[in-house]
Structures are given as C-alpha cells and as structure tokens.
Design goal:
This protein is of the alpha+beta class and 523 residues long. Helix content is 30%, strand content 21%. It is globular, with a radius of gyration of 30 Å.
C-alpha cells in the first residue's frame, strides 16, 4: 500500500513537471512567434478604390433626400404694379447718385430678389434679407450720396452671406470663404502596412503619427501605384495654421519631415487661346475626351455636337478619360445628351429644383451673352434627339421625374436609380470646373466605376445664372443671379467647397497619371 502510494505520488509530480514544461515551451514559442511576426503590407488597389467609391455613392443615392423643395417654398406674391415696364433701362454713365436715389435702388433690388431670386428662401427669406436691407439703408443715410461703384461695393459687402457663386454685382462675384486643397510641395509618398502609415527614407520605414491620418488622401505615384499623399482641404486663413513638420518614428527613434504647403494646381492653361473647346484622342486604345465649355452658341455648336456624338466611341471601352478641367459650364443638356448616347439611358442627378417663374426679362440690360437657353435647345440637332425626348417623357410617366407648377413657382424632382457599368471612367476636375460642369459631375456620381481625379471643383451650383443683368434705375449698378435653387445632398457649404476628388493630384499631367495608374494595375 505504501509503495503504490509513493509510486503514484512520483508519477503525479512527474506529470505536473511535464505540464509545466509544456506550458513554458508553448509560451516561449508564442513569444518568439510574436517577436518575429511579419509586417504585412496593406496596398491600395484600383479595384478597392472603385468598390469603395461605388458603395459610398450608391448608398447616398438610395437614402432619402436630405433637403426637400417643400421646405424652401415661400408664399410671396408678385406685386406686378410695382414692376412697370421701362422702369429699368440699358446701362448708362452715372457719376454720382443722391441718398434718395440710392434708397430707391436698394428698395427696388430687394423687392426684385424677393420675387425672382431662386435662393431667396434658402438663404433666410424676408427675416434675413429685410434685416440686411435695413443695414444698407442705415449706412446710406449717413451720407448725402455716393458713386455707383461705392454702392456696388457696399452691396457686395452686405450680401456676402450668400453662398451663391453665380451672384454678381457689376460683374464682381461675392467674396466667398473658398476652400482649396493644399498639398506638400515635395509630394512625399506614403503607404500603409499592419503597423500604420509609413514613408520610406534611406530604404527604411518611418511611421507617421496616427493623428495625421486626416490629412492623407489617395494620389498616384510616378509609377502609377496608388499611394497616399499629404492633402488637406482648408481656406486661406486655415492654411496658415497647417503644421510645418511631420513627426516620424521608427521604434525608439524619431525624426522630422519639413512640409511645404501650397495650393494644389492642375490648371490646363493660363490663356483661353491655348485651349480647344473639344478634343478626342486615344492612348493605347484608351479614349481621352476633353471638353472645356458647355456654352452653346454659334461658335461652339459644331464642337459640342461632335462631343455628344463621339460618346459612342466610349461605349465598349474598358476604360476612358473625361477631362472637365477648366470647364466653366453652360447648358446642362450637353451632359444629358452625352450620357444618354454613352449609356442608352437618361442619367439624372439626385436633386430638387425650385424655380421662381416671375418674368422680369424686360428689366435686363439688353446685353445678352451669345448663349442658347433651354427653351431653344431644340435647335441643337443630333440624330437621336427625338429618342432622347421620348425617354425623358417616359421618366415623367413612371414618376421618376415629377413636376409641379403653381403660384409663379415650379418644382422639379429627380429620383434616379443606380446605373451599373463595367467600364471605368476617370473624370478629371479642378478648381476651374464649375456650374453646368458640376451638374454633369452630379449625374456622373450615379454611375458605377466613375472616379473623380484632380482637386476639388469650384463650387458653383446652388443657384443658377440667368443671361443678362438687372439694372438698378438710378445708379445703373448691374445685378446678376438666377431664379432657380438646386437642392442636393451636397448643398451645405457646396459653393465654398465643390465636389471632392476620389484621387488627388498636384502639378502632374493628370491624363498621363491616370493612364499610368490603369496600366500599373492591369499589366
């Protein structure tokens, strides 16, 4: 009995020691494995970018609209007795305007805006505008009179709260708190692995402070690889507070990288003469389409027709480039027709459009830009125009487009569906892309595999712009604005920011960069 008990005790102790040994060995292996764990790279691929962009835009498209026309309608009735024909004449030379005359001009302007400025209610309606009017009149009464240009500058100052890039006084646009992409002059290339974001210096990985993640945006390296760069969207005042250095670390070692911030620039040319209205070319069988205006007139008609008809050349291409840099807009239907010819479908933006239909055309200066309006758009003949119009009519019948006209106002609502395409379309944009060109971007953002490349666009789509100016009776100050409001999910601060690129670029040839990027991932 004693011998068996001792044997069992020895066996128990031996087993216990073995388990401790196994446990220690396991911990040692685990420790060694942890110490020798490989750093795993997390590269960005074009497929990943496309998937992310598609998911975000499709989700936004399918969500209920953030802003609805019904919330921005007013009950203003036009006082036609106030607006008598001939009260406003063509421009004239005026050197000085009396206090009484200025007060009458200011009163006229604010009544005019109340009845046919499309953004009047969106920017606060009577509550805001009448208060501003009182401030202007109060300042005017402190003086016996002023020169017309002084009045124009006073109006610009007091109306600067309007985030409407189309609004202008004496052809001077409101000074908005515009935001630009600022970037690092040295174009440091940043990648990501399982530890974090890093950049190579002396062939070694130096890691960024995680707080710098907010200033990292996708860009294209010279090789065509998608990497991260330092880009931040700020206004001029905010740019002065940007950090001068980038803190890097490698284990216990630290170092600094000097940042030289400057506004990102992808402008095509400084002179209009260098820019052709429309260009089409192919690079390794990849179509490259460039259009720098949507203004339809006698000089541009042939080029715009060619642009629309050439969309057919892109239909079956795996990848194409649409360059809308420096496109200042014009007629939205140019983009409509191009997209219809490309996809065989009407491509709508997600928007509510309010238009005040009070006709004040007889108050305009009579100096009209040589631009065709939507009313005579039918003069723009392409062989599928009737097919396009019938397709538009079908959308009304299906309730995808709805329209209501009442009380000198109209409401148009577009509720598009997501359009799947296998083809990739790189769309080049910059700070000189605005107005109808941005409306084009809004339509393009409802199609899969569309990637915006460059910088942010101008931001000029909250209100529209009518041809010609309204002339104030005494001072002859010229006022220009639109009678429509475009309510989009992006409207908040849009006219200071614009559309943001999916891939940022600076100082490089964007066309060459996107082609190199596509080839890098499709070798």
């Amino acid at each position: 009995m004693t011998t068996n008990h001792r044997s069992k005790s020895l066996i128990s102790k031996t087993a216990h020691r073995n388990w401790i040994f196994i446990l220690l060995a396991g911990l040692l292996v685990l420790l060694l494995t942890s110490c020798n764990k490989k750093i795993v790279d997390e590269p960005v691929t074009l497929d990943l970018v496309l998937a992310k962009v598609n998911e975000e835009r499709k989700t936004e498209l399918e969500e209920p609209s953030k802003y609805l026309a019904e919330d921005y309608l007013s009950s203003n009735q036009v006082e036609f007795s106030f607006f008598e024909k001939g009260e406003v004449s063509t421009p004239g030379e005026v050197s000085y305007v009396s206090q009484e005359e200025i007060s009458e001009d200011v009163d006229f302007l604010f009544r005019l805006m109340k009845y046919n400025y499309g953004c009047y209610t969106y920017f606060g309606g009577d509550e805001v505008f009448l208060k501003v009017k009182e401030e202007i009149i109060k300042e005017v009464k402190l003086r016996e009179g002023m020169e017309p240009e002084e009045l124009a500058n006073l109006l610009l100052q007091k109306l600067s709260f309007l985030e409407d890039s189309h609004f202008s006084i004496n052809h001077k646009h409101l000074k908005l708190d515009e935001k630009y992409y600022y970037t690092d002059n040295n174009q440091i290339e940043i990648r990501k692995d399982s530890i974090g974001f890093y950049t190579l210096m002396d062939n070694k990985r130096w890691y960024l402070d995680p707080e710098m993640d907010q200033d990292l945006q996708l860009t294209i390296a010279d090789s065509g690889e998608l990497v991260y760069g330092l880009y931040t969207l700020v206004n001029e005042t905010e740019s002065k507070a940007l950090p001068d250095t980038l803190e890097l670390s490698r284990g216990k070692k630290d170092r600094e990288y000097q940042i030289g911030w400057s506004i990102t620039d992808t402008k095509i040319s400084d002179t209009d003469e260098d820019n052709q209205i429309y260009q089409f070319s192919e690079n390794d069988r990849i179509p490259v389409v460039s259009l720098n205006t949507c203004v339809l007139n006698n000089e541009t008609t042939d080029d715009l027709k060619k642009f629309v008809m050439d969309a057919e050349k892109l239909k079956d291409k795996k990848v194409a480039v649409l360059d809308l840099r420096d496109n200042h807009g014009g007629l939205c239907q140019i983009g409509d027709l191009w997209l219809y010819h490309l996809t065989g479908k009407i491509v709508l933006p997600k928007v509510d459009k309010i238009t005040l239909q009070c006709d004040m055309s007889y108050y305009k200066s009579g100096i009209e830009p040589n631009t065709m309006t939507e009313d005579n758009f039918s003069t723009f003949k392409v062989d599928f125009i009737n097919e396009y119009k019938n397709a538009m009519q079908d959308l009304f019948l299906e309730g995808i487009i709805t329209g209501v006209n009442s009380d000198n106002k109209s409401i148009m609502k577009y509720r598009p569906s997501w359009l799947d395409r296998d083809n990739i379309l790189f769309v080049l944009i910059n700070k000189d892309t605005y107005s109808a060109a941005e409306y084009f971007l809004l339509q393009l953002s409802t199609i899969s595999n569309v990637v915006f490349v460059g910088t942010n666009s101008n931001g000029c789509m909250t209100g529209d712009s009518l041809n010609g100016d309204y002339i104030l009776p005494h001072s002859k100050v010229m006022i220009r604005y639109g009678n429509s409001l475009y309510l989009t999910d992006q409207i908040q601060n849009f006219d200071t920011r614009g559309f943001l690129p999916d891939i940022c670029l600076e100082g490089k040839d964007p066309v060459a960069s996107v082609l190199q990027c596509y080839q890098y991932y499709n070798q």
